[in-house]
Structure formats: structure tokens, C-alpha cells
Amino acid sequence: MNVRFLVSRLSAALAVSFGLVAVGMPAAHADENHLDTVKKRGTLLCGTDNTTPGFGYLNTKTGKMEGLDVDLCRAAAAAVLGDASKVQYVVVTDKSRFNALRTGQADVVFAHTTETPTRESAVGVAFLPVTFYDGTGLLVKSSLKAKHVGDLNGATICTTQGSGTEVMWAGYLKAHNWKASTKVLTYQDTDKLFAALNSGRCDVMSTDKSALAGWKGNASDPKAFDILPETLDKSPLAGFTTIEDPKWNAALRWVIYATFEAEEHGITSKNLSTFLTTTDPYIAKFLGVTGTFGKDFGLQPDFVQKVISSVGNYGEIYERNIGPSTPYAIERKGSLNAQWNQGGLLYSPPWY
């Protein structure tokens, strides 16, 4: 990875960090209504990664953050503040993402995070609906000629600090009795992780398969890398909020569900207006034309409309960031990330 690219990325990250210092937001208290706090501030502080292509990534050509997780930040801002642009991205790493929420630096985090019981019980966060079903994979240089995970016994494996993958590998090596020469090195983020693989400090880059697809697709020569076929564990990825404010979590949970439900009914950012005069009472209530969903959540009546018009339904978000027309081309059809009525697991409860 060239120096100019790294300097550009660092400068942008520092700019975001300094913006946070200027905000000077204190840690939220358990008795504080977080929804009202965000409305009063007028800006959503959204924690996300800037080193995971397709999910949370700083596009150095445009100077803008982009990706599926970034669009979810924008969806939350659209629902809560009526404007998807009223979001400040707080750059987090696997190691810092939970602390950013606890210290009040972020209102919500969408950062390629696996939902686990320890994180809800011991760490104390409340997860939102799963927005991508993933699993731990392995990226190697094609020159290594590795075909399966068993070929890596004795290799140097790299992953990110504070990640579930780091914990997984500690158990995997013991469970499979791999050679003592096998090493696991950790780095701050996937940017440094890929640089370590590229430079030869690591034989293997191990993290969620979607992130590996992003880095392979973003490489100067994608054919120089292989993603091995094995998926070593489950990684249901979801955003999260503080556990102390269930009303805040509930509002954002249904914002995510809204993107699923809109896709199920064929409502897109392009045809939204045609549904606003529907005679279908279910759709009218879902879109806030009738009913009290917005008021009940402390949001505007048209919050679902704001979300769809700003970022689209889940399918639009997926296709724009990681679909077949992108360099990452992560197949959705036939995968767990398809809608429930197409064999997948994406599913919104009914909007009654």
C-alpha cells in the first residue's frame, strides 16, 4: 500500500477525531433519554470503520466515507433527524468500538461487529438486527499455493486486535493441535492487516469473509490473492447501542427493520412516491401515511419515508456497496443474506 494512500487515510481519520474533540460530548447517563439528546444536538455521532471496503471505508478519490455500515449510519440520521447528511462519522477499530459508545463519543456503532453473548452481557451493549450474515475466512497470496485451512498449519496468521477472530484462533489452534511454530499476530485494523499480508509479515489474513472480499477486490491485482473455501465460524454482523436506553435501541432497531420490510414489498428510493397513495392499509401504516409508529418511537410520522428516500431499501444498500456491480461482488442470491422468502435469513417482524 503506497505512502500517499496511507497519509491521506490518516489525515482524514485525524480530521474526524478532532471534530469529536470539538463536540466534547460527555458520557451518557443511564437516566438520559438518548433520542432527545441526539435531536437537541442535531447531529448523529455514528461509530464506523474506515478500513473495510464495502462496509466502512474512506474513499480517497472522493474524500467521502462509503459502505454498507456507513449507509446504515445515514439511515439512522435520516430517521432521527430527518436528514441523512446530519451524521458525524467516528472512526473506530475492533479494539476501540465498544469504548467509543461507553464514553459517549458515539451514539450508535455500525462497524462490522459480530453479535455474541459476551458482548451483550459482560461488555454491556445492546445489538440491533443482524444486517449481514458472515463467517471467519482466510485470505492468502496465490503464490503460497494453499488450498485449504489444513495447509496453513505452522504458518503466521494475522488478524485484528480485540476481534472475535482473535479469540477464535486461540481456541482453534489448541482444538486442532497445530504446530507450536504457528503464530497469530494482531494489528489495529484491516488496513494494517492487509499491509502485513502484502509485505510478507503474514502468510494469512484472517477476518470476516466479506472484509476479505473487499480487500481482494480493492487490491491492485485481485488475482494475486485467494480466499480459501472454509468458513471457520459464524459472524452475524450487527450495529449496537448502549444497553442503558432501550427506547433508543428500539427506535434504531425498527429503522433497520424498515429497510428489510421495504425491500420485501418492492418499495425503493425510486418508486416510493407511488406508494404514498396506496389503498393498502398495511403499507400506509408502514410508511407513516396513517397510524402512530413515528410518534410511538419518538420519531417523525414519515421516518420510514425519510430512510427509504435517503438510502433506499436493504437490497439497494447491498447492491450499491457490495453487490455484483462492485469490485467485491459478494453474491446474495441463495445466501443467508437473501430475504426470508427467498431462502435467506433477512426478516422484519410484521408492522402491525
Task: Tell me what you see in this structure.
The chain has 352 residues and is α/β, with parallel strands linked by helices. It has a domain of 99 residues: 3-Layer(aba) Sandwich (D-Maltodextrin-Binding Protein, domain 2), CATH 3.40.190.10. The chain is built from 14 helices and twelve strands. The relative contact order is 0.15. The N terminus is likely disordered.
Query: In sequence order, what are the helices and strands, one letter per element?
Result: HHEEEEHEHEHEEHEHEHEEHHHHHH
Fraction of residues in helix: 25-40%
CATH superfamily of the domain at 135-233: Periplasmic binding protein-like II
Taking all residues together, what is the mean pLDDT? 90
Q: What can be said about the biggest beta sheet?
A: 6 strands, mixed
DSSP summary, beta strand count: 12
What is the oligomeric state here? single chain
CATH architecture of the domain at 135-233: 3-Layer(aba) Sandwich
CATH topology of the domain at 135-233: D-Maltodextrin-Binding Protein, domain 2
How far apart are the first and last residues' alpha carbons, in Å?
51 Å
Strand content: 15-25%
Cα gyration radius (Å)? 21 Å
Number of helices: 14
Structural class: alpha/beta
Q: Uncertain runs with pLDDT below 50, 5 residues or more?
A: 1-31
CA-based shape: globular
CATH class of the domain at 135-233: Alpha Beta
